[in-house]
Amino acid sequence: MLPLPFSPLVWLLLACVLVQLFYFAYYFLPFANRPPEPTAEEPGPDEEPVSILICARNELEHLRQLMPLLLQQDYPAGFEVVLVDDRSSDDTYLYVQQLTQYYPHVRLVEVRRTPDGLSPKKYALTLGIKTARYPRLLFTDADCIPATNQWLRLMQRGFAQPADMVLGYSAYAPAPGLLNKLIRFETLVTGAQYLSFAWRGKPYMGVGRNLAYTLQTFRSTKGFASHIRSLSGDDDLLVQDAVAQGARVAVVAEPSAHTLSEPAAQWGTWWRQKRRHLSAGKRYRFADRWRVGKFIGTNLLFYFTAFGLLFSRPDWIPLAVLWSLRTGAMLLTYHQLGRRLDDRLPPALLPLLDAIYSFYYLALGISLFLHRTLRWK
After folding, report:
1. Which one, of 133, 129, 136, lies nearest residue 155 by Cα?
2. Which family does it belong to (predicted)?
């Protein structure tokens, strides 16, 4: 048998690159370059009234920023804002109660105690949904703001595709420092996955900062019943259950339909936040875990394999070729995604951010395996 011209690690590296190129070419780039969605100025099917739901705990300062922007939403069909005060110890209740006196379409639901063993946020959201007047529900978080006063109108356009759920994108505000750029990179890559997979007909998650679904969809899953004791998953696990029940999922990703969130300012805060978010992944359908895991896994394996090839001088040339090929494709893909989602990052930092992102996820996975205790704020 003739010896292979390169070491087995080169072929492993090639396999990783080919998998990555498939995701770039089949999911991410076509999604980034898809035809533009209708603008707010164009006529559209947004004649149904909507209930906007926010669950807040000790978020008074954020609510002072968010509520005026929600009340200014341009939506002729009408809407209500249901604010669920989840055991706050600040003046959230008094602030929202004052708003209800001036704005009849602002409604307050107070949660004084969460039953033992139940997820606090899911319990609070369930009470809010039971109070909602309208069959279309739109969700965001207290520490988010809509990108424009057309957010509500554009998110409702997704139901006309037709759909039972609408997935939106929620970006993080730019700020100085490596942590901010890493948070925004992770958000961009995660958004590229769940939005492009759904666009290709394989929805698996959404983010509660910008998510809409019908009351009937919530009822078809029996609410959060299948995971009410799990701390996380009020968004992605609900999508999992809804898709299993045959729900149709649409994507609305135009920048005017985004929400903007305040990112964590400390590494520890982001670490705890990501641990809580990733803990729901074990409940995903196997096909979804395989699809997402294959992308992240080959990303990580690429770096381990490339590092091993650094010690094999005869393999430096194929290593350089494959590294350059993947890096070029990655820069092109993430640049196009950043342009389409209006969430741009410095191109020179993308290779570094991609490497940190891969190993950060490995560390998170190990942490969740060894220490499974989570907490809601």
Report:
1. 136
2. Belongs to the glycosyltransferase 2 family.
